[in-house]
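During data preparation, a discrete fold description was generated, as reproduced here:
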Amino acid sequence: MSTDIVDGAQRTLTASSGIEVRWIMPEGFLELPFEADDLDELTDRICELAERALPGADQEVQLQWAAMCAANYDEFIEAGVQYAGFVTTEVDGVRCTATVNVSLMDLDDRAGKNPAGFIASTLRHLDLGRVEEVRLPCGPAAMCVGSRSADIDGSLTRTGRAESVWTSFIQVHIPLINGTVLVLEMGTPTVEGWDVFSAMFAGVSKSIRLFDDNGAPLVMRG
């Protein structure tokens, strides 16, 4: 997926066994590149993204930001991330930012006939946050709302020292009939933007549609 500004556009990925997943991203999101012919092309696309994301910053800051993004790619691959986008906007005069990731993971073989319930039970056991089962237009899902801390490199902080930042997040886990789980996550370190971003993410989650090999709509049972 190429780096670009999303203008309320549909996004598509194909899971194993041919299930196609489509969803709508709101206007204003910048996407991290996930398709490139080689490492040099990927590097160029990340640097282009840095210029779009930080248009007023000097080149050194842009390169530092690009390097930080590139450092996350191993984690993206390990976590099965298929899409990663972010948006920055002002909420009540405060500059706020949020990220949205879309991943595909293997469904636990023990999930049984109620995989969404199994996932919800697992999330509760992990004590990641508030967990509930929900039903989306595409089928049943487990939702988790919580927070976690992450370390920010000193090169990107005002003090020049590494700092811990708390991020609030919402995860939606949608089990698919092909033995995988579609996971969407929205995260934001800015408390002021939580209401706006969580409402936005609810719209993204409800926009998810599933299709089979022939393009026929699918709705997961459960």
